[in-house]
Amino acid sequence: MQVEVSVPKCVASGQCVLIAPDVFDQRDDDGMVVLLDDAPAPEYHDAVRESALVCPAAAIRLTES
User: Which of 14, 31, 52, 61 is deepest in the core (most CB within 10 A)?
Assistant: First the structure.
């Protein structure tokens, strides 16, 4: 799995961080998404998929391999 985020699309809701804190974080100054791991281990895949589904701005893009 490859993960990409679009910071310009991000609305800083923080849902991704709540669901997958090992993969996503938020900037302190404005709350925008920070991608911590663009190729997370398989044990994080379900949480990353859920994060992409619930993102209100559709700012998370996944490529399954």
Answer: 52
Q: Give the number of domains in the chain.
A: 1
Q: Report CA torsion sign: 48, 53, 58, 64.
A: positive
> 41 is written with which tokens?
């281990």
pLDDT in tens, 23-63: 999 999 999 999 999 999 999 999 999 999 999 999 999 99
Q: Which residue has the tokens 């709540």?
A: 18
What residues contact 6, with CB distance under 8 A and at least 6 apart? 57, 59, 60, 61
CA angle 34, 21, 5 (to 5 degrees): 35
Here the CATH number for the domain that contains residue 22 is: 3.30.70.20
